[in-house]
Amino acid sequence: MARIGLLGLGTVGSGVYEIINEKKGNFFEDDSTLIKKILVSDVTKKRSIEVPKDLLTEDFDEILNDEEIDIVCCVMGSYEREYDCMKKALMAKKHVATANKEIISRHLEELLSIANENGVNLLFEASVGGGIPIIESIVETLKINKINKIQGILNGTTNYIVSKMTKMKKTSRH
Ligand SMILES: NC(=O)c1ccc[n+]([C@@H]2O[C@H](COP(=O)([O-])OP(=O)(O)OC[C@H]3O[C@@H](n4cnc5c(N)ncnc54)[C@H](OP(=O)(O)O)[C@@H]3O)[C@@H](O)[C@H]2O)c1
After folding, report:
1. Closest C-alpha to 6, from 79, 55, 78, 54
2. CATH number of the domain located at residue range(s) 2-149 in this protein
3. Mutate to test the pocket of ligand 1, among 42, 48, 75, 81 (most ligand atoms within 8 A of CB)
4. Residue whose CA is closest, atom 26 of ligand 1?
5. Where are the beta strands (DSSP E) in 90-165?
6. Is the predicted pLDDT of residue 172 greater than 60, yes or no?
7. How many CB atoms sit inside 10 A of residue 12's CB?
8. In this predicted model, what pLDDT tens digit does every residue of 35-64 receive, in sequence order?
9. Which comes out higher in pLDDT, residue 94 or 163?
10. DSSP-assigned beta bridge partners for residue 71
11. Given CB 3.0 to 4.6 Å as the disulfide criterion, which of 26, 114, 123, 146 pairs with 90?
């Protein structure tokens, strides 16, 4: 059984909620994994999805101090508050999964070390090319290789180009 504290209910958080609690996508078939509490900046805000009111909170301590919650999923997109929440969650021996690029690019080593000290996992696949499972491939499948450098095109740039190509009904072959 896993209980999740979700930080953020925006574009990404709403999708996470629908997949886990509303069973969209046929991935979570029973209630062994559920989101128990959701941190937002304004509990009164009108939302595009319907979520039971008692799940929402503006107080991170409700997630931190809930012993049943063993996983904290960070999709707020804020910097200081999310970084603080992530550290506190790891220190409270909760696993952390994050989509936050800035925090991972600045503090990966520190957060991994706090996770190791507390015997929990820090998962950040979603922060690095979310749709491409590259981190797991590097950590697991490619672990016998020594990778010195990775180069690529920045996410925003490719998204912009792909959107423009779609709008213009062109593909890279034309
Ligand atoms: N959108 C994407 O396609 C995408 C793809 C990959 C990764 N990401 C990453 O995923 C994260 C979330 O992105 P998003 O697009 O879902 O963001 P978003 O739509 O702006 O949603 C942010 C959510 O976090 C809450 N929030 C923000 N700051 C908060 C604070 N200080 N305290 C409490 N709650 C706070 C907001 O609460 P309210 O609802 O009350 O305002 C909102 O529910 C970001 O790190 C982003 O870089 C996004």
Report:
1. 55
2. 3.40.50.720
3. 75
4. 76
5. 95-98, 122-123
6. no
7. 18
8. 999 999 999 999 999 999 999 999 999 999
9. 94
10. 4, 95
11. 114
- Output the residue whose Cα is nearest ligand 1's atom 48: 12
Radius of gyration of the chain, Cα coordinates, nearest whole angstrom: 18
DSSP 56: E
Contact 4, 34 (CB under 8 A): yes
41 lines ligand 1 (CB under 6 A): yes
Q: In the chain, what percentage of residues exceed pLDDT 90?
A: 72
Six token digits for residue 65: 């101090």
Residues 17, 6: Cα–Cα separation, whole Å: 8
3-state secondary structure of 3: strand
The DSSP secondary-structure symbol of 54 reads G
Q: Are 28 and 20 in contact (CB under 8 A)?
A: yes
Q: What is the pTM of this model?
A: 0.88
Alpha-carbon distance of 76 to 12, in angstroms, equals: 9
Model confidence pLDDT, tens digit, residues 114-131: 999 999 999 999 998 777
